Amino acid sequence: MGEDISLNKLKQKRKSLSDRYEELSKVIMAKALDDEDASEEKDESDLTEKRIKECEDTIKRIEAKLAKDADDNSDADIDEDDEVEEEKSKSKKKSFNVVKSIGSGLNPAYSLGYKLVSNALIKQVGNYNGAKEIKKAFGASYAETIIKDLTTTSTPVVAQDYNSAAFVELRRAKSPFRRHANVMPMTEGNMTIPRQYDGAMAVWFGESQPYTNSQINIDNINLVWKKLGAFTYTTRELLMYSAINIGEKIVDDLIKQMDVYEGLAYATNATVSATQPIGLPGMVTSENVVPSKGVDFASVWATLNTAIAKIRGNNIYDKVVWFMAVETEFFLRSLLNSFGIPVFANMMDEGHIFGIPYESTALIPSNLPNTATTPTDTVAPVYLLAPDYFVIADAGSFNVEQTTQGSFITGTGTQINTFGQDLVAWKSSTRLDTALTLDNALVQILGDGWAFSNTASLIANVQTPSTSKSGASGTGQGS
């Protein structure tokens, strides 16, 4: 008798919790559709659902015990799994009628009704992020059932669940220059750095002889912003109906591409320009260029040490860094000394060459001409830089903007009306300049033949577009 009383109390408690769970589900649904924060309600909903489950587990145990005591298992024991399957079967009917009752053990949130869920899903057409909120409120399996019911063979109401974590990004070249530079803020868009280029002289002289006159000499290094920008656009429909957060991918792509193209200027720009910052090839002076002595181990060893001697001979005792093409890195790794030992590979595995850290990047080419008259395009330059004197003056203006207004002209000269054609445009920009504040803080090796293959700067690993089709149900595509 006492167990009957306990069972009744538990069922009353379950009903009370179920009512509260239903209220919370309505609030969560409303906030999800209005893009409002429902974290507090979700936390309470999860706790309430857990307590409902605990009540139901206890009810099952008491009912099973009572049935056993009464030796009437066949009548008293309710196969809950059958009830669930029966309810699912009912839900698969393409009806928008509100579910009036729920069976024991089913999620109480289902009482919100098929019509409410369906309308909510339709409102979230193509927006999987919105559909995820519905799944949280109503349970994944039930939501998936509704999605399938509302999906024809050609037009899914909710886009398929792409695994955004498995999104295959474009592989870009590594740009190592900025992290080895002396980055200075250029808040006014221009900056002047005073530099001592000569100093007072000391001389030996005899008694009563006059001092030789000399003085310190100072000049200025002037930096003025150069603007790097990127622009792209897409349709509003792509943003609305894409199965992934395409807007986030676009912004991320712009940011990464800006970094790569900034690095490309540092790796290749050899001329002074009003629109581009000068790069390492244009900073090195003719006195600091070291020709390669050959491609065998002994010649390469001597050439690298010549470069080190050159920069140390220029009174540069600060930290220095090697920069080279990827092709050159693996060329060095392949060299064996007379005993068959890969000396460079062993050093590079430890992150250095002769104790000096190195960076390799596909932005540095390995196909520069070796002579002006009859070039064979076999030179892979290697730079030895004291980074404290490689200044990047950053105006601190990096930004990404989005608009649906105005118009623009494409690279082919076509006028595009952003608002009139339902397009969304993004642009990113930054302003900076570079300088080598000490002329002899950079040495360049002309590594003739120091590469497995001669290639130009590689910006990114661009792929051939895939034309494969899916044979999955509901996509409307055949294999």
- Sheet/helix structural class: alpha+beta
| N→C terminal distance | 65 Å
Mean pLDDT across residues = 79
| Main β sheet profile | 6 strands, mixed
Tell me how many strands there are: 15
Keywords for this entry:
six-stranded mixed β-sheet, alpha+beta, elongated, five-stranded mixed β-sheet, 13 helices, 479 residues, disordered C terminus
Could you give the topology of this structure?
Layout: H1 2-33, H2 39-69, H3 73-76, H4 80-91, H5 114-123, H6 128-138, H7 140-149, E1 182-185, E2 190-198, E3 217-224, E4 226-235, H8 236-241, H9 246-268, H10 280-283, E5 289-291, H11 297-313, E6 321-325, H12 326-334, H13 343-349, E7 352-353, E8 356-361, E9 379-385, E10 390-394, E11 399-403, E12 407-409, E13 415-417, E14 423-436, E15 442-448
Parallel strand pairs: 1-10, 5-15, 6-8
Antiparallel strand pairs: 2-3, 4-14, 6-9, 7-8, 9-15, 10-14, 11-14, 12-13
Helix pairs in contact: 1-2, 1-6, 6-7, 12-13
Q: How does this structure look, described?
A:
- With 479 residues, the protein is an alpha+beta fold.
- The protein has helices at 2-33, 39-69, 73-76, 80-91, 114-123, 128-138, 140-149, 236-241, 246-268, 280-283, 297-313, 326-334, 343-349; strands at 182-185, 190-198, 217-224, 226-235, 289-291, 321-325, 352-353, 356-361, 379-385, 390-394, 399-403, 407-409, 415-417, 423-436, 442-448.
- Strands 5-15-9-6-8-7 form a 6-stranded mixed β-sheet.
- α1 (2-33) runs antiparallel to α6.
- Mean pLDDT is 79; it is low at 74-81, 88-115, 121-129, 150-165 and 470-479.
